[in-house]
Design a protein that fits this description.
Structural class: alpha+beta
Number of helices: 13
Strand content: 15-25%
Strand order of the largest sheet: 1-2
Helix content: 25-40%
Largest sheet: 2 strands, antiparallel
Number of strands: 10
Length: about 290
């Protein structure tokens, strides 16, 4: 299918997006499990959200293995999948509330087909595929990192969520601190690479941890463990710049996690330690607050 043929669909949907906030009743990608009004609607036509990631397949779940989450019924292929979902629902729920990822990247909301998906950076992306238009092919024909950045930014605007565009995230995903555990800096006094199997999301950013205990510790007080300045270099914030970090170069300042750039050009922690820390924190805090207020 040519892109030209698809352009009218993008234009038409873009005209509709201005008036949409939460998902409307006709575009929720969910069907009623039965005529009984007392039963929560079934999400994704009954496809298992866990199978996308654990088995790399679109698999129909069974009502035998079902659970209700946030007003929707999810089906799974077995009890193990259901238990995995109950332990970490945010890990498995499709990105962009199940809307077509390509559409969101183009600032439009298209209904998705639960059989057409791709796991990108640990997130499940669904795509429009109605026999005429397959946005999965369009997605793969463009630069994925650019599409992810556009989709994330557009989704923040559509939903009014925190400005993730200002956070230091892995390319094409919402993973913070390059996958290092934010809890380990405090409890172990060192940088420890996390495991995607142990993940939690806070303010839209996904963090990886070294163990399930660390996940639980984080969930009890996430604001304590999240890195300052969205994970950007603290010295960079002080001079009003977003500088990339070395996740193994850090400092705990007034019970806050500060990360620093450290490469062949500069060790920003050394620069930081030569200045007046209280003054530097005030400058960094001020710049970060100005970014969030844009």
């Amino acid at each position: 299918m040519s892109v030209q043929r698809y352009l009218p669909l993008i234009v038409a949907a873009a005209l509709m997006v201005c008036g949409c906030g939460a998902l409307n009743a006709q575009s929720t990608n969910k069907t009623m499990a039965s005529a009984e009004t007392t039963m929560a609607p079934v999400a994704l036509d009954g496809y298992s959200v866990v199978s996308y990631q654990q088995r790399a397949k679109a698999e129909k779940g069974s009502p035998r293995y079902a659970t209700v989450h946030d007003g929707q019924t999810y089906y799974f292929t077995d009890g193990a999948e259901r238990d995995a979902f109950l332990a970490e629902p945010n890990r498995y729920l499709p990105a962009f509330d199940g809307w077509c990822a390509y559409g969101i990247a183009k600032n439009a909301k298209f209904e998705s087909n639960p059989r057409t998906f791709k796991v990108v950076g640990g997130r499940t992306f669904l795509f429009l595929n109605d026999g005429e238009t397959n946005t999965y092919d369009l997605w793969n024909g463009e630069n994925e990192q650019r599409l992810c950045r556009a989709a994330n930014a557009n989704w923040e605007t559509m939903t009014g969520e925190a400005p993730l565009a200002h956070y230091n995230l892995a390319a094409g995903s919402t993973v913070g601190i390059h996958g290092y555990s934010p809890v380990a800096y405090f409890t172990r006094g060192k940088a420890v690479k996390g495991n995607p199997a142990y993940a939690a999301t806070y303010r839209g950013v996904t963090y990886h941890f070294a163990s399930r205990d660390e996940v639980e510790t984080f969930k009890q007080n996430p604001s304590k463990y999240e890195p300052a300045y969205g994970g950007w270099c603290a010295t960079g914030m002080m001079i009003e710049q977003k500088l990339q970090i070395d996740p193994e170069t850090f400092k705990i300042v007034d019970n806050r996690l500060f990360l620093y750039k450290n490469d062949a050009e500069v060790n920003a922690l050394h620069v930081w330690n030569k200045g007046d820390e209280a003054e530097q924190v005030a400058k960094a805090d001020g710049y970060w607050e100005s970014l969030l207020g844009e």
